Amino acid sequence: MSIDQIREGMEVIGADGVHVGTVDRIEGHRIKLTKADSGSGSHEGHHHFLSAGLIAGVEGDQVRLSATAENAELFEEEQDEG
Description:
Blueprint: E1 11-13, E2 19-27, E3 30-33, E4 47-51, E5 55-59, E6 62-65, H1 69-75, E7 77-79
Parallel strand pairs: 1-6
Antiparallel strand pairs: 1-2, 2-3, 3-4, 4-7, 5-6
InterPro entries: DUF2171 (IPR018684)
Pfam families: DUF2171
Organism: Sphingomonas alba
């Protein structure tokens, strides 16, 4: 699996099939998720990133992770805006 197969707008799902986010773009070896998937409260207004190491594969318009959605969120990195 190559990170080059991942495109803007693809859905990112956990190994359990649960929606994790939507690809904004690839930055280095990380997937940058759209702000719309950033949640609320202290997570609102931040882009979140997932390491390419979590990617299990690409199927159609979906990026499937090797971790469940809940576990993948534990590995997310945040970027402050502003």
